[in-house]
């Protein structure tokens, strides 16, 4: 019996000790709650700088949160090039707590601007109203929402009379990545190297194009380009016709744009350029030949013609060397047996054949 009572006594002592600790924890919790209440009351008097510091620390502890959860606004000096410390000016003028605006983050921008991120849409409106209603701020600062800028593509050296609607259709037809994209004509940029077409595009399609690294747009009736892959080796075969009655420069500009897009490919160009030069035949150079030769030199092309061959054009109207074979990135070890064949076809242009040979286990060698 004595042992039983002693056990009960010990249990009662333990219970009292536990209850005492519970009361201590309760008092501690109540003390902390009271402290938080007082801190919250003091925070109502917090100025703009303190608010931004607290918001910045809070944001740094939660980096996983996306910025688009908040709302953004831009502030810039009203006068172009004027040096104003916008952040300091706001700190001295606006109390976010009074207008009930939560500042999540502030970031410096170029040209003296800042970006402010708030928690809610209406807080942006409150901040904007405060800036625009304050005479000291509105004279020096412009506040506005960010404008989403669509990515843009530049398509070089397009025709001067480019049909915009037809070209948009061609872009979609010739590029699988653009079939469902939101394409929009922006403007034609005129330069001393030709006309460039600026097209805006939705971000998703833009990323696909960047990953692919190219855009196909062939709209010329005088140039045909074929992309041929043999044993994982990529060749570009281009056929060109330059009418003798039309300016050769626009066609050469289109040809050059294709070459630049496929700089790393093995390119073979075959064309009736109606251009004369001693660089590819025993004849004096004309203006068309000069323009073509400048392109050859600029793009580091090789001339495949044999300057001692028979005329490439032979008819009752005359004889001339106006048909060319040009190559890029194809060495003489690979490009072989350029031959002009007379009396093989009924055309007044003689047939030209050549070979591009390589071992199946090796790629054609680039020029040194």
Automatic annotation (TrEMBL):
Protein name: Endonuclease/exonuclease/phosphatase domain-containing protein
Pfam families: Exo_endo_phos_2 (PF14529)
PANTHER family registered for this protein in UniProt: DOMAIN-CONTAINING PROTEIN, PUTATIVE-RELATED (PTHR33273), ENDONUCLEASE_EXONUCLEASE_PHOSPHATASE DOMAIN-CONTAINING PROTEIN (PTHR33273:SF4)
Residue ranges of domain Endonuclease/exonuclease/phosphatase in the record: 236-352
InterPro entries assigned: Endo/exonu/phosph_ase_sf, Endo/exonuclease/phosphatase
Membrane-spanning intervals of the chain: none
Protein's organism: Araneus ventricosus (Orbweaver spider)
Molecular functions (GO terms): catalytic activity
